[in-house]
Amino acid sequence: MEENKKEIFLFKLSKEIKKTKLQIIKYSELCKPIAPENSIGRISRMDAINNKSVVEAALRESKQKLLDLEKIINKSNNKDFGMCIICKLEIPYGRLMIRPNSQKCVNCAT
């Protein structure tokens, strides 16, 4: 990867890490249980339980994304930075800018 493109990508990567950390905080707050003494009605409580499941799934995805992003930024000084982990070819720059946590090229990801 060209040095100027690498700098732009690393900047985007650090912004994505910050954004993902904020999402994790937000999802963690939304996952807190509803206290039984809060009267919200049976249907509303069932809806809240369902929403909590969705938010918990989003929280797990965000945590995994953060791990992937941090793994990529830690590899930024390696010679194989920006390379597909399967075919060892360079991942297109556009793909990295759209999906910074990509570790595979489009062909190997499918």
What would your notes on this structure say?
This protein has a domain at 3-78. It is built from four helices and no strands. The protein has 110 residues and is mainly alpha-helical.
Strand segment tally: 0
Radius of gyration: 19 Å
Approximately how much helix is present in the residues?
55-70%
SS element count, helices: 4
- Shape, per Cα inertia axes: elongated
Mean pLDDT: 88
- Oligomerization status of the protein chains: single chain
Percentage of residues in strands: under 5%
Structural class: mainly alpha
- Major beta-sheet overview: none
Topology order in helix (H) and strand (E) letters: HHHH
pLDDT < 50 stretches? none
Distance between the termini: 23 Å
Features of the shown structure:
110 residues, mainly alpha, 65% helix
What is this structure's SSE topology?
Blueprint: H1 3-30, H2 42-74, H3 93-98, H4 106-109
Helix pairs in contact: 1-2
